[in-house]
Each structure stands twice: as structure tokens, then as C-alpha cells.
Amino acid sequence: MSFHRYSIEISDNVRKKIKFYAILVVVCFLCLWMRVWYLQILKGESLSELSENNRVRLVSLPALRGTILDRNMETLVSIRPSFNLYVTPEDTLDLNQTLARLKQRIDFKEDRLKKGMKEARPFQDVLIKADISREEVAFVEENKMRLPGIHINVEPLRSYLQNEMGAHILGYLGEISKRHLERFEETDYQLGDLVGKDGVESAFEEILRGNKGYKEVEVDVSGRELNTLRKLPPESGNNLILTLDARIQKEVERLMTGTEEESNSGAVVVMKVQTGEIIAITSKPSFDPNLFAAGISREDWSKLIKDEMHPLQNRAINGQYPPGSVYKIVTALAALEEGVITPESTVFCPGHFRLGRGKYRCWKKGGHGTVNLHRALVESCDVYFYTLGFRLGVDRLAKYAKMLGLGNYTGIPLNGEKPGLIPSTEWKLKTRNESWLPGETISAAIGQGYNLVTPIQDVNMLAMIANGGLLYKPYLVKKIEDSEGKILQEFSPELVSKIHIHPDTLKAIREGLRGVVNEAGGTGGRARLNNIVLAGKTGTAQVVRMKSEEMEVDEEIPYPYRDHAWFAAYAPFEKPEIAVAVLVEHGGHGGATAAPIVREIFKIYFKYYPPAPPQEESSPIGPS
Q1: Catalytic residue list contains 78
Q2: Active site residue: 202, 236, 325, 443, which one?
Q3: Least CB-packed of 154, 257, 291, 509 within 10 Å?
Q4: Alpha-carbon distance 281 to 605, whole Å?
Q5: Global pTM?
Q6: Which distant-in-sequence residues (6+ apart) come within 8 Å of 201 by Cβ?
Q7: What is the pLDDT of residue 548?
């Protein structure tokens, strides 16, 4: 091979390699150009937005929830600053490692956090733990560089200043549900937000919540804020001024708490008879709504819902109980209005009432002898009212019970109110496909059998007797103010119905109720006051039927089988101002257990609101 030929072969190889590499370079540039075209032209807008989102964040600013105050402007519910710990998962270099490092010093619920991260939008802050301690705040601040994506927000936290006081009326907050979010798509609610779940917190959620603000902030690669670009301040929620008097509410709750050895469960309602304003209302046992303020733990929630005493139940509006002898007011009014009796009509009580083969006992074994309506009310003679019920029939009883507000919703602006039950022949046929039995009327006439009422219905009925037949809708909010104190709305009494009751009927029933408390032999004597005349009615509602020989000593009866104790009253007799209903679950006799509580409530009320002296020309009958 000559040198010249060898040179030609080398040149050909070089040219081939150059050509190959040239093609390779062209292909690479073509690929790069296509990638640039894809990123800049095809995906440019979305990637630009993603890049901007990675640098600029839209952060929501929580609104200050409105304050709740009593009628004297004492703050019941407000807010306090809370240090809340968050993570932005996209800002962490190694999420698992960061959370593990955090877990060494700060205890938090991992399953709850995982759920929050799963439901969160990209670059959305996810709550790790609310209301962390100052020591935990210090740890996070000292380890900022080792905890990328972790940050603390100072946010408002709901604070219930009196702890358990008024818990069922004030309500509590809870994390918004998906169902709630779907119902309010056009609002600024987000997953993780706290909303009213019960009481006025729930009923007036739209009034209290306010409107969130927003700010655009520039962040670094670790998600830390560098500066604020734009800001829209939040709008504070409006304030509620309630009809409650915190001084009286506090004392009522103390009276219902009982002793350490024997605590009471039950309810109390204190209401103005001429307006329907609720002055105090309580249900026992209660709970501390502060448990919910930062998100209740599983342990605390489990403890509440498994408690056999049901502390979350608002017995004042959804506890349904046999009214017992308080219902004798209905029977007396029906018999008088229907002309079945006059106030002077007498019945002989031998201690029992016979109907066919049935024997219905009076609470007094030896009987009351011959009694008229007045003495029958004063001594709560069962046989007298058995007789009236037998003559009236259940349907006429039901008619007057419903006229007095029983068996219907009162309309109090709280969730969960129950209507109670007033039976009739039609009701039994419709719900049980059975005919009404005469003996069932006998039980119904003294508030037993199928009858069920709530404490707030009971107080409404007494208020109607006191005010002459006016049925008011109970209300809890006097007015709504904005955060500057400007009045936005004032609430006034709402008359639901007005029934005509003959003045003689009212006089007879009122005089009987006064005698219950103030005359010898009256079952409500323990409610008597020296300086103010009360009128009321005791009630003992059977939980289970017991033989007469088993009805002697309440303390010997197992607690779940003891009767419920009722007492409902109004005062002053001459010029009624307020009505009070007290129910003590399994408290035994109303005159022994509930009446003393009512007496103390009236003493407390009139200490703060002394009654006006009665005018000479005023009539005990009142409006009709």
C-alpha cells in the first residue's frame, strides 16, 4: 500500500466521523429546540404560573370571630392569640425526615396530619398542631434552618371565659366537614376551618364568622416569607349580646351542680313571662367548650360521647320527659273551659280510682277525702284529676295541651330542639295502629303515659298562665353589634299565639298554684319565700311503674329507676315577671328536690331585679 493511498483512507474515515458528529450535534440541537418550544410555547403559561406560585404565595388571613356577651355586656366568649404549627409539604427537602425531627420535641397526631396533607391543595399550609406551648415555639424558632417548610402562624383562638358555664347555649367550634363545604361553595371556607357546631356559635355562624383577608407574599426555597406584595385585611365578625344574665346563669349552674357525693343531672330555664327573653338556661352535666377550640383530641371526644350521663345533650330543649303533675294545669284548664267542672266541683278521693277492673292509685295512700279544684291543685290529688281526665277524654286534653305550647317546637333559635309528645286517639292509631284505651286517658290526665315535654315547654306553659294566655317565642339574642359597637339589629318579643282563657278559669288556676307554695298541705311549700309570693306546681314523673309498697324511700330505689323531679313556677304572683322550670333527673319528688332549687333561683333573680311594688288597682287575674 502506497503512502498516498493510506492518506486517502484516513481522510475518508475522518470525514465519516465528522459527518456523524455533525449529525449528532444537529440532532441534539433539534431536541433542545423542541424541548425549549415545548416549555416556552406549549407549556409556557402553566409553567410560568407554577414558577410564580413557587415564589409568590396567596396566604389567607383569618378573621376575628365576633364576641359573645351577656345582657350586661359581660364578655362570655372572646378570642386570644394562639401559636399554630404548620407545614407546607412542597417546601420540605425531605418531608419524612423533617417531621421525624419535629416529632422528637413536639407531639402531634400523625394520622390527622396525613389526612390534612392528602386533602390539601398544592402549596397549601397544613396544620400540624394548634395552640403549641411557648417551649415548642422556641424549639421551632431555634431550628428554622433544620426544619424547612415548617412555620408558625399566630392566629385567633376561641376562648370560653367561664369554661363550662352556659356551654350548651354558647356552643362550641369544630372543624368544617366536607358536606358543609359543599353546601357553602361560594364562601371562603377551607378544609381545616373551625365553624360553630352547637348553640349560638352554630345558629349565628354567619353573623359571628367575619370575612377572611388575604396577602400575597414572596417566599424563598424553604417557604419562608421574604416580603408582602399585596394585602387585603380581614373583616371581623359581629358581636352577639345575649338575653342571659351571667350573674344569674352562674348561680343557677351552681345550684344544679349538686354536691361532690351526689351531683344533679337535669335542666333549668328562667324566662321573662311578658317577652320570652331567656335570663338563664342550663343543662347538667355539662362540658368545657374550650376542649374544642383548638380541635378536640380523640381521647377527649371519646370520653364525652361514651359518658353515660351524656354531657353534650342540651336537656333544656331536647330532653323529653313525662311532665308528671305539672300537667294537671292542662287538665284543670281543659275541664274548666269545657264546662266539665266549676272551681267548686268536688270529688271524693279514697286513695284510688276504679275503672272497670283497673285500680289507679293516688300518691296519698289514705286518700284526700272530698276535695274541690283548689285543694286538688294544692295537694296534687291524683284521683281528682283521674276523674277530670275520664270525663274529658284524651282528645280534649290534647287540644288544650297544644294550645299551651306542649307537643310543639317553641322556636328557640338553637339546633336540636325536640317537640315532645302529646298523645291523642289519632296519634295512637297512626303510629301504632291501635285504638286508644280508656285507662290510658287516666294516666295522661296526670302527665304520665305517653306524654313527653321539654323543660323549655314547661316554662312556656307557666308563663302563659302568668301573662293571661300569651305564647311567646323564647329568644336568646337581644342585639347584634359590629366590631365598632354599632347596633346592626335588635330583637324584640315575638308573639306566637294568643288564646282566650276565661278570667274565672285563670283566677281558679292561679289561686290553686299560689296555694301549692303558700298554703298548709301544699306540695311546693319548700319553694316559699317570705317577701315574695310564688305560684307553681310540683311534678313527679315516673320512670318505671312500681307497686305502691315499693314507692316509699327514693334512696332505696336504684338511681336509674327513680322518678324525675319537676317544679315550675312564676313570680311575683300579683305582677308576674319571670317563670322558672326545674327538672332534676331521678330526683324523686318534685316538692322535695326541685322546689328548693326554684326558691333559690327566685331569691337570686330578685336580688338583682327587685320587684316593683304591686299597684292597688292591679288585678291578680291579669290580661285575658
Answers
A1: no
A2: 325
A3: 154
A4: 13
A5: 0.83
A6: 68, 77, 170, 171, 172, 173, 208
A7: 45
